[in-house]
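Final report, Chapter 2: Outcomes

The project's central promise was a pipeline that accepts a single protein chain and returns its three-dimensional structure in a standardized token representation, suitable for archiving and comparison. That pipeline is now operational. To close this chapter, we reproduce one record exactly as it appears in the project archive, with the input sequence first and the structure output second.
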Amino acid sequence: MDRVTIFTTDSAAAQFPAFANGETEFAFAHLSAEGPSRLIEGSVWAFVDWVMDDLSGLEMVRRLRADERTSDAHITLVLDEDDAEDRRRALKAGADDYAVAPLDRQAILDRVLALYDCTNRAAAERQIVHGDLEIFVSSELARWQGERIELRPNEFRVLRFLAENPERIFSRQQLIDALGKDGDPECLRTVDVWIKRLRAGLRKVGAEHLLRTVHGRGYVFDRP
């Protein structure tokens, strides 16, 4: 099934249940000032509030455009009121569209569904490159110095997420949340299996130094 991720800076809207339309699932997720906190799958839509707790919506739009994970996202800036000057500033900052609050689940889905077929800019061609490490998002392929790293899907997703967030320490619980595996009581132990297999795959190609354990805290991807 194809997946569309709808990020929103509204924490309540981020809890809206997913919606399935044919072979596509539209899933909601929270967007904080630090950017996406979970693995991004499929096309990305972002609904950014004009006023946020720790920065302006305009600055959030600029950050999304500067982040390679979200640079192609369809961004709607959600205005407090329909003001011509605010609309102009929203589009100038890099938003694709604007709307006036409040937006309920159906209003958000209506906007996404109306544009999805003609603006489907999925992450199919995206690459993540750190030195000799190449990660091809759509084909779930990773190479080190041109040699394929043999990984199962979950280990690939762990590597991809860590590589998208280099030099940051993630606990097992944070990795579960980032990969959308929350709710499974076995996942904390499963993370250890993923990490073990990921290390084995990296070791075979001489890239084991990319993944570091910070005892008592979690795991970190070190840029080569």
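Archive annotation: The mean pLDDT is 88.
This record, like all others produced under the grant, will remain available to the consortium after the project formally closes.
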